[in-house]
Every structure is written in C-alpha cells, then in structure tokens.
Amino acid sequence: MMSDHIALPLAGAASYEELLKCISADEWDFLSWTKLLSLVEAKALANENIDRVVPTFEGFLRRFPLCFGYWSKYADLQATVVRYEVPTANDETIAAAKTVLYERALEQVPLSVELWTAYCAHVALTEINSQGMRQLYERALYYVGAERQSVPLWEAFLDFEASRGTPSTVCNVYRRGLAVDTTGRIDELWRKFKLLTRCYKISELIENHQETSALLKRYKARKQFDAESSEEEARRLKSMAGYSALEEQRQMEQLLFETEQAKNACIQRTLQRQKFELGIRRWYFHVKPLDEAQLENWRQYLYYEMQNTTKNNFNDTSVSTRKNNFAQVDHLFERCLIPCALYAEFWLSYAFWKYHSRNDFDLAIDVLQRALTKFLPKRPDIMETLALFLEAAGRCEEARQVYIDIFEFAKPDAARLAACCLKRAAFETRQHDVNATLAAFRTTLHIIDGPHFNYIASQMARFQALVIRDVPAARVTLDYAISNRPDDPRLWLARIQLEMMQMYQERVYLVVDLVSAVYERALAPETPLSFHHKLDIWSRYLYFAQAYAYSVTSILDIKRRLAEFRTTVQPDVSKVQIQQTPMPAELEDIPELSKFDPAPPKF
Description:
30 helices
C-alpha cells in the first residue's frame, strides 16, 4: 500500500550515470530518484559501490523528506555503511548510527507510525534502562497513538510494561489507550482493563496517594455527599472494621467510572469522524496527485474540526481545554500535510489557522517557511502570503526580500511579472516609500513588453497622479507607453482619463482643451488604431464634447468628421511598423522624493 516502499525493477534499467544525469537536469524527478535508489540499494546489499549509498539517500531525502519508507531502507543499510566506513565498528557503533538516523527521520516525519514502530523495535534490542524505553514509547504514542495503524505500537508498549513495568504503569497505558483508541479494539481494551482492576488493589494501580484521594473526593461529589454528612460518616466509619476497604472500593469504582466515561467519549468522537477517516485512502506522501474526492474529504474534515474547536472553546474557556482543542486541529493539519504536502491550499489554510487561533504571526510564518523550504520552493502564492505575514509582524526588511525573490522567480512569465510588480509596489506604498514604489514600476517597464507593459505603465501613471499628485510625471509615463504601443486603445483611454481627472482642480475650459488634444492625437490618421477602436474613441469624443464643449460649432465639427470617418476607407494598420522609443529621462532618472502623505487627495 505504501508506494515509497516499492522497489522498481532493475531489468533494463538505466545505469547509475544515466540516472544521475536525469536528476542533474531535474532534481525533483521522483521516478529517476526511485530508480537510482533501487539500483544503489541492490548494489549495496551485494557489497558493491557502498560509497554511493550515503550521497544518494541523503540527496533524495533532502528533497523528499516525507518518504518514510526510504528512511527505513536507509536505516537498514546503516550496518553496511558503517562497516564500510569503519571496518572495526562494533554492534554498539552500528546501533548508535541507526538511532541517530531514526531521530533525523522522525524529526522530518513525526506522524509516521511505521517509523516509530521500527525505531521502538530497534531501541528495544539494545536499551537496558526501562525508563528510557518507556519515554520512547510515550513519545511515539504522543504523536501517533490515535492513528488507526498504531495497534502494533500499543501492543508493544503493553507487552513492555507487562514484562518490565508495574501494575501502575500497565494501568496508565490502558487508561491512555481507552481515551484515544481509534483502532476498533476499544471493547477488547476495556475488557482487559476491567480484568486488571480485579487482579490488583487501587493502591497498586495508582501509586500516587494524592491521586487516589482525589478519586475519593470526586466519588463523593458524584454521589452528592455534602460536606457535613461526609465528615459525620467518616467519624462513624473510622471506628468500624473495613473502613479502609470501603474507601478503596469507592476509589476503584470512581476509577472505572472515569475510565468508562473517557472510553465512551472516545467512541463518540470516533463515530463523529468516521466518515472522514474512511475517506482517507492515502495517508503517506507521494508525488502522484490525489483525486478530487480525497482532497475534498480533507477540506471538509479540517473545516469540521476547526468549527468544532471554535464551538468547544466558546463553551469552555479554560486555558487547558483551549490548548487541547487547538492541538487536535494542529495534529489533523500535520496529518493532512503528509499526503497533501504538494498542495498550497492546505499550507495556506494551516498558516491562517495558526494565526487566527493564537493571534501570533510568527506561528503562521513558521508554517509558510516550512512549505517553501521543503516542499513548494518558489511557490508564488505562498511567498506572497509569507510576505504579508512578515509585514504584519513588523519584519519589513524580510518581507521586502521575499517580494524581490518573487519578482526574480517570475521574470520568465510576463503575466506573473506584472502581478508581482503591482504587489511589490503596493508594499512599498504601505511603507510610505515613494522612490521604492516608482523604482519597482520602472524596473518592470525595462524588462516587460506586450500588453503587460501597457498595464504596468497605466498603473504607474495612476500612482503618480492619485497618490503623489504628480500629473506631469503621469503624462510622461503614459506618453512613453503610447509611443511604444500606439495601437493599444486602453492606453489612449487612460491618457484621456488622466486629463479628465483635472476637472476637479483646473478650470473646465482648460481641461476641455487638454482632453480634446489627446482625442485629436488618438484619432489622427497616422495613429495605428483599428477602425473599430477609432470608431469607439470618436463616439467617446462626441459624447465628451456634447457634455463639456463651450462652443456648439466644435460639436458640429466633430459630428461632421465622425460621419466622414464612417464612410472613409481606412488603411490596414496591421502592417504599420512601430518604432520602439527609449525610456525618457523623466522616467529614467526619478528624483529623490520625501515620504508622502498617505491620505487620499482632496478635490
């Protein structure tokens, strides 16, 4: 079932050098990596080319750290590797090397039941100290104790405590298992636990006297003993034989009651989540995409858990309960991000959950940096979100560097480059740095072309006109863009709109002359706009004149010229050669500007 365990057949396979060449061309070529690993493993088991094991496995696991099957293979090869590197190595040295490797593996994949099971089995062969072994089992069950595949781990822990522990430690394992078990064996565990309580006294099952006293208090509270009657009963019974046995009986009854409550709550939680758990058909990492049904199952499961946590926290505001509820959602996200590690939507959801649940930007930043470092390098949507969180956390220099990286990664793609430019310019605007904003626009105009060039130029002109209120500079920007793409009607309309905006600040007749001059330039015979685009601009010109012209003769003249235009055969503008114009000095050499007032312009 675990595809990263499958060794590809070597018959007819490529040579070591050919596979290395494929990987050098594309370091994320998963198929070539798996073929190379199979080849190296087979050779190492035959005591050949052992020197290739470490660089090959290290290179693969650095790029695909969630492939627990290959961590296990690497651990199994440690004896061969260590004896090759140190011919005099003894069993202790080999065991220590495997321990270090398992620790590294579990740092990368802490929710792998298979890795924890293998690690515990390895340590059990060499660990003499019972407490050290117990702590390892505790660690394992903290991470994967609630997984359906964790049955062997629970059984190994129970066998360990039965052979090397005490009735108290065995009781503790049963109580923990009954509170989290999702394996379908909860009735069997409950039956064994009740048998355990018949075989030992309460003082043997719970050695802490304070805990047994607390059990007795909770028993009396449950049975609604009032304080006065309890004291009177205690004085009366203390003088009677069997009082101690009666207290122990009550403590044992309370222990069974509380454990059964935890068991029933566990069954209820399991039933509520059963439909989601059954929809998880792949819990391990693989580069093959998941089908939409599994993705939707994860979305709904996460949404349910987050909604349920929000409701529970509203009903119970205690700090410990809130932490436990948050931890449950975090654990589910971590489970999800093993099979869904290559899906940005789940990393983004996890980051937003971390922030909104704890109101801590740094937690969200850690999640996004994990995604970019290990699984989705150069992913633009994650990088943009990371930059926003860094900015919100006051780490503006780091955010600026992220925007610069996004811009560099986007250079081959004009559409992405334009989008990155606008986001970077918006960031600099929020920092009240006009020069950096204009520099972002100018840098993009140097390396972009086509319709995206026109769009960036229009956005730069809008920034100059509306934010820093430098209309002459906005005119230079749009005229420069028009000189390079005079066949784009959107640039002409933006230029017209720029002059129209002066209606609120200049005398109307002056603005009418400025707007009319732009219309005349756009409609000149030498302007390479198509017939339909010119007809649209003529219609806009007539509408503008009817609304603002101060002479009726100018309106009649425009109507006459429009009628003539409709009946005139237009030249074929598709063959017009457009000469590229260098960036004017006004744009190339932007003067240093002081910090601007972010308040909107007043009209």
